[in-house]
Amino acid sequence: MPDSRPAPATTEQPPVIDTRLSYRSLTRKFAGVVLTARTPKTWWLGFLFSFGLLMLFFLAIAYLLMVGVGIWGINIPVAWGFAITNFVWWIGIGHAGTLISAILLLLHQSWRTSINRFAEAMTLFAVACAGLFPLLHLGRPWYFYWLLPYPNTMSLWPQFRSALVADVFAISTYFTISLVFWYTGLVPDFAAVRDRARRRVAQVFYGILALGWRGSARHWHRYETTYVMLAALATPLVVSVHTVVSFDFAITLIPGWHSTVFPPYFVAGAIFSGFAMVLTLIIPVRAFYRLHAVVAIRHLENMGKVMLVTGLIVGHGYLAEAFFAWYSGDKFHAYMQLNRMFGPYAWMYWALLAGNVAVPQLIWWRWARTTPWVLFVIALLVNITMWIERYVIVVTSLHRDFMPSAWGMFRGTIWDWLTLIGSFGLFLSLLFLFLRLAPMASMSELRKLLFESKEKENAG
Amino acid sequence: MTNALELYGLLAEFDGPEPLVTAARRVHAEGYRRVDAFTPFPLEELDEALEIRRTRLPWVFFLAGAMGAVGGFFMQWFATVIHYPFNVGGRPLNSWPVYIPVTFELTVLLAGLIGVIAMFARNGLPMFHHPLFGVRRFARATQDCFFLVIEANDPEFKPETTAELLRSLDPMRVIEVPR
């Protein structure tokens, strides 16, 4: 970007890309991973493991379709259980990808270029996992199309006054736009892979995916405009999606759910857990594919900082929840909070405070943010405790609401756990396929970044 | 020299972005208009060098989005007020605040989808065959090389003088592109 402002402290920061790279070496590096005839053994190992989990997922789904949602631990009063917990968790993970690809693009954060493709892929696969859970939770998933407004002989419409219907629109729009954004970004890179491919199969496969892209200046002009427009659309979209998800809770009257703090608290939590997932995934991938020239420590550090800030917002959310439980003077609300802190699920509440609020404070120290394995451990922990957070929100609010005679306990069955673990199979299988079949970083954007960095270097 | 009728154009390869932009400016100044440049990454300087008209695609996005907004709201209003009125706790039938999320999602959905389709359509993509793909060297246009093409159907195009002009711009090579 031509920068007319006086140079801020950024000049002292390490570069976002190693300027010893060339357009050629960059292209060779990322297209090479895709076009190599030898698939690394470790890749096969990882893929087969994920594929095994995916088969487990299919098994759990098949049994669910045969028998029904009774195989899960859900019952009255806790009818939402794992399905909604997993749904909120997966969809939240997706949000970091959109934040990196859209919001950081609009903010001219050049470091995003190295990781945006990868993060967008993560978004797409996480949303695919998320979308399955409410569908499986329907009871009769084969009637899922009843959720959509379509002309039908029953002359019925979806209930548009329900946040659950808004959710259907939000998730499907989010998935579609994420897919379109991702694919649009991939087209010039598919063209590069097509042009480097030697084998006929690869030439045809990537040729079709590249749509005949040839890098014309006129095409680039429209392409760049479209890309920015998409980013501008995706930015409010990502905020809206988790807001609508939080409406599923907030517009009910359940103590602990019925709260105006939910939308911002959910959006921050989504970005928090999403960045944790990006870090969890990119640190091993970076080490395995030796991406240090492109994904520098500075990238990890920046992601760590985003995690720290969003983690603090989430912590503020916990505080606000506890405060309003007392300040509202609502007996049920106050009881819910005490039950969370000291009731049968108390250990989960304290675990989520430790994992989401206490431990991430380590990121204040430079050594923690610049040591990949420390960041990895923190991120992994945040992933787990963010799942626990959603579990606590879903379960502790439902299991003891108003009437003690209607109270009950919830415990996930083996099928709950298999469905959750199986969904990792879907996510990881797709991720492994992506790493093998598509360039994992945007080569065209990295070339541009390299061009600009070299220009800046020459000017300085 | 190949017959001008059998020629798609003349392709010049340049060492980097800067010589390409300089060359594009010169060629444009010489009056050539059916000129295009090919780069492995977007180069904003080319828009100005080749006087590429600013795209009107944002209008497509806007109109598609407006369609999504109006259509989305209308659908919900029609469903809940006209077609299947349903009294929920005595609240007004046209409970518009709750229609906003779906209206917003449909705005984004239509704008994004139609906008991207329009972008590819305006670019004439997908187009799996193109005379330039016949040039072996052109495979580098998507990787690390910078090209300028003057099409043979440019009114100013004369095989000899155009080739001379291109050669005078210090290219790595000038290639004839058969039709």
| Fraction of residues in helix of chain A | over 70%
Q: Radius of gyration of chain A, Cα only, in angstroms?
A: 23 Å
Mean pLDDT of chain B: 90
Span from first to last CA of chain B? 14 Å
Q: What proportion of the residues of chain B is helical, as a percent range?
A: 40-55%
Straight-line N-to-C gap of chain A: 15 Å
Order of helices and strands of chain B: EHEHHHEHE
Main sheet overview of chain A: none
Count up the helices of chain A: 15
Order of SSEs of chain A = HHHHHHHHHHHHHHH
Strand content of the residues of chain A, in percent?
Answer: under 5%
The best one-word shape of chain B is: rod-shaped
Radius of gyration of chain B: 25 Å
Shape of chain A: globular
Number of strands of chain B: 4
Largest interface: A-B, 65 and 63 residues
Describe this structure in words.
The complex is a heterodimer of chains A (460) and B (179). With 460 residues, chain A is mainly α. Chain A is built from 15 helices and no strands. In chain A, helix 3 (81-106) crosses helix 8 and helix 4 packs antiparallel against helix 5 (163-196). Chain A starts with 22 loop residues before the first helix and ends with a helix. Chain B has 179 residues and is of the alpha+beta class. In chain B, 44% of the residues lie in helices and 13% in strands. In chain B, helix 3 (57-83) runs antiparallel to helix 4 (100-122). In chain B, 41% of the residues are buried. Classes of the chains: A mainly alpha (460), B alpha+beta (179). At the A-B interface, helix 1, helix 5, helix 7 and helix 15 of A face strand 2, helix 2, helix 3 and helix 4 of B.
